[in-house]
Amino acid sequence: MAAEERPDGHAGHDGDAGGYDALMAAITGESLPPDADPGDRRAYGSAAADVALLREQLGIIGTALSGPPPVLRAPEAPPA
Fold this sequence. Notes:
single chain, 2 helices
């Protein structure tokens, strides 16, 4: 059994275990707690940048998928 795997079938952990979860805060739009240390601030800044990039890329994908399908042309025959 892998170190992160548990007998109940879950991997990893069940939440933040009392700590600050910068990625979850960035995803949900929560602000930093007033007593956040510099490490938490760096983690939040990095997570917020990742989430912003992900939102931008998902917007591009959504726009591409919601547009009309491309027009397919038959291949041209080579000149004789």
